[in-house]
Amino acid sequence: MTITTLINGVTDFILSGIPILVSLALLYFFWGIADWILNMSGDAEKMKKGRERMVWGLIALFFMVSVAGVVSILSNTFFGSAPNHSGPQGNTPSSGTLFNNSTPI
What we know:
- This protein is mostly helical.
- The chain has a domain at 14-76.
- 69% of the residues lie in helices and 0% in strands.
- The chain contains two helices and no strands.
- Helix 1 packs antiparallel against helix 2 (44-79).
- The longest helix has 36 residues, at 3-38.
- It is rod-shaped and about 60 Å long.
- The termini are far apart.
C-alpha cells in the first residue's frame, strides 16, 4: 500500500460522509425555519431559538461544503486526480444512448 493509495482512501471516506452530514445540517436548518415561522406571533424565546438553529445550520452547511472542496483541491494538487466519490458505476446508460445500447436517442 502506497501513501497515495492510503490518502485517496481517507479522502474517499471523508467525501462519502459529506452528503449525509449536509442532509442533517439542512434538516436542522429547516427545523429552525419551522420553529421561527410557527412562533412568529407567539413566544419570542422560541423565535430566537429557531433563528439560532437556522444560523448554526447554515454555518454547518458552509463548513462541510468547504471541507469537501479543500479535500478535493488538495487531492488534485498533490496526487493529480480527484478521489472517486461519484458512486457505483453499474450498468448505467451512457450519454446519448437509450438503455445502454448503441442506438442514439
